[in-house]
Amino acid sequence: MKILITILILVLIVLQYRLWFGDGSLSEVVQLTRELELQKQKLEELESRNRILEAQVLDLQNGLDAFEEKARNDLGMIKQGETFIQLIPEKEAADGQ
């Protein structure tokens, strides 16, 4: 009977070891769950960015207004007859001197 109890205790110890420290252990499951959450957040951010880019592509494909807006915002272009005025915040003006 003592041999059977000893064998059962050894089996229990081996199974507990695998549960806590082996492949598929609880700590590994927790770590993988955290990594999965991080990957889901990154995926949501990238999907949001893709929707914005898709909307910009559709705007550029569908009209000249988008071209004009892009040229004004990104390249600082102005229409003929317009006057370009650039305002420099006081902090930047003081740093430049």
* Average residue pLDDT: 83
Helix content: over 70%
Per DSSP, the total helix count is: 4
The shape is: elongated
Low-confidence stretches: none
Total count of strands: 0
- The proportion of strand residues reads under 5%
In total, the number of domains comes to: 1
Textual characterization of the structure:
This protein has 97 residues and is mostly helical. The protein has one domain. 78% of the residues lie in helices and 0% in strands. The chain has helices at residues 2-21, 26-62, 64-75, 90-96. Helix 2 crosses helix 3 (64-75). The longest helix has 37 residues, at 26-62.
Q: What is the structure about, briefly put?
A:
With 97 residues, the chain is mostly helical. It has helices spanning 2-21, 26-62, 64-75, 90-96. Helix 2 crosses helix 3.
Throw out a few tags for this protein.
mainly alpha; 97 residues; 0% strand; elongated
